[in-house]
Design brief:
This protein is an alpha+beta fold. It is built from 16 helices and seven strands. It has helices at residues 31-42, 76-83, 107-113, 136-146, 153-157, 159-163, 171-181, 190-197, 209-213, 220-233, 240-254, 260-268, 270-276, 278-286, 292-300, 309-320; strands spanning 3-11, 16-24, 61-64, 67-70, 88-91, 98-100, 103-104. The longest helix has 15 residues, at 240-254.
């Protein structure tokens, strides 16, 4: 192969279009090196952001063939092994306002980051004179979250953000909140958790795109789960989110199977579920997606337990017990 073909999404503030570029192929090229070649040799009007070229600043994150990645840390050869030798489509990060070509706005996201209340309020025993040290094991408990470089890859691929930005935050914001909530030196860890309760902590849809797309192998989905557990243990058990989780646990402990018919009433209450979801339920009956007899049987009694249910119950019991 002598040439590489890139199809790059362009935007000038008014019009959008996709532009084709062909550059000489060299083994070992990164996506960022390719973009720099295009800007320096072919089209100086192409706009993108980049800085360190060492995968530590996060500035060069883009989407290639619909998947977020760090341009400086991604080899074109690896992409060709995945996608074949056809053209590679490069576009700006998703779930972000595009400023120009591959450049997206960060002002709004940085402002929302403040909602996590980033910053450590240390316990009284720490001071400028005594320092604020912690045990190595405590440091390791939050070391992963410290690796976040705010590249935006997780937010780009978050399906909940795509659905609605009004009631959910970027996954990296939850990670930053979890970092401070899990810090052994913090005097008020729940301050960060309670802030996230007000901004969609229980509304994650568990698509795990934030986990699979993070170039630093951070797991925002797990950070969300950890803060949910902290919230429940602190007594924040009211609301559809905690009740939904408890309904899942109830079904797993009872039979090992999820009872969809009982799930909504357990989550939202019988009256609310009956009035809010009645039109949808009737449409399911009309389309043959839900049988009357089957629904009644599932509501009146659970299915028989799955094989080896005792093992699952032991796991659930151990997970509930204090560590």
């Amino acid at each position: 192969m002598d040439t590489l073909t890139f199809l790059i999404d362009r935007f000038d503030g008014t019009d959008s279009w996709r532009q084709r570029y062909e550059i000489p192929y060299k083994p070992g090229m990164t996506v960022l090196a390719s973009l720099i070649y295009i800007k320096e040799r072919l089209d100086p009007t192409l706009n993108f952001t980049a800085s360190c070229r060492s995968a530590i600043c996060g500035a060069c994150a883009v989407r290639v063939n619909g998947h977020a990645l760090l341009a400086c840390d991604t080899m074109v050869d690896d992409l060709l092994r995945i996608w074949g030798e056809g053209a590679l489509g490069v576009s700006p990060l998703g779930n972000a306002r595009v400023v120009s070509d591959l450049v997206v706005a960060w002002e709004e996201k940085v402002e929302r980051l403040r909602l996590a209340r980033p910053g450590l309020d240390a316990k009284p025993e720490f001071s400028a004179q005594k320092g604020c040290r912690q045990a190595p094991a405590d440091m390791q408990a939050i070391a992963r979250q410290w690796d976040c470089i705010l590249c935006g890859s997780c937010a780009s691929e978050c399906n909940k953000l795509t659905d609605s930005e009004k009631d959910f935050l970027e996954p990296f914001i939850f990670t930053h909140a979890a970092r401070y909530a899990g810090d052994s030196r913090s005097a008020v860890p729940m301050r960060h958790v309670e802030a996230m309760l007000e901004h969609g902590l229980w509304k994650c849809v568990h698509c795990m795109e934030c986990v699979t797309k993070c170039p630093k192998h951070i797991r925002p989905g797990e950070d969300i789960a950890a803060m949910r557990r902290m919230a429940v243990e602190a007594g924040h058990t009211d609301g559809p989110g905690p009740r939904h989780a408890e309904a899942f646990r109830t079904d797993l402990g009872a039979t090992g199977r999820l009872n969809e018919v009982k799930l909504v009433p357990r989550t939202e209450g019988m009256v609310s579920a009956a009035t809010k979801h009645l039109p949808f339920t009737l449409r399911m009956f009309a389309k043959g997606k839900l049988g009357v007899v089957e629904a009644a049987r599932l509501f009146m009694a659970d299915n028989p337990p799955v094989e080896n249910i005792d093992g699952l119950r032991k796991v659930l019991a151990a997970e509930r017990s204090p560590s």
